Amino acid sequence: MSDVEFYRDLCRPLGGITMKAMFGGLCLWHEGLAFALVIEDQLFFKVDGENGPAFDERGLPRFSYTTKTGRTTVMSYARAPEEVFDDPDVFADWARGAIAASRRAAAAKPAPKARAPRSASQTPKPKKA
Hints:
The protein is an alpha+beta fold. Helix content is about 30%, strand content about 30%. The protein has helices at about 5-10, 50-55, 90-110, and strands at about 15-20, 25-30, 35-40, 40-45, 60-65, 70-80. A 6-stranded antiparallel beta sheet has the order 1-2-3-4-6-5.
């Protein structure tokens, strides 16, 4: 069974899950929001100030990578506890927490700026035939 099939089966009770190849691994999305990464056979859930402490208490590391310039970037994803693979209900609980963190992050983003209407001088001129 491939990673995609494995995670599709594991996520089935959550509904609305899509998956995309990303970061050399797999990104799991729920209703358009990324909530988990699978990188080098490790699952990482989205974390924030609300659900992050549960990961920290268990000593679960954040996902990080080193850029070409040598800088280490730490992302807001933490490794999932091993028991999520033993019990689908445990997986669903942790995944729901990650989905909630994704929703909070999306809600906190500022709305995109509205573009000003073009003035007559900025309107493109029709091409001559």
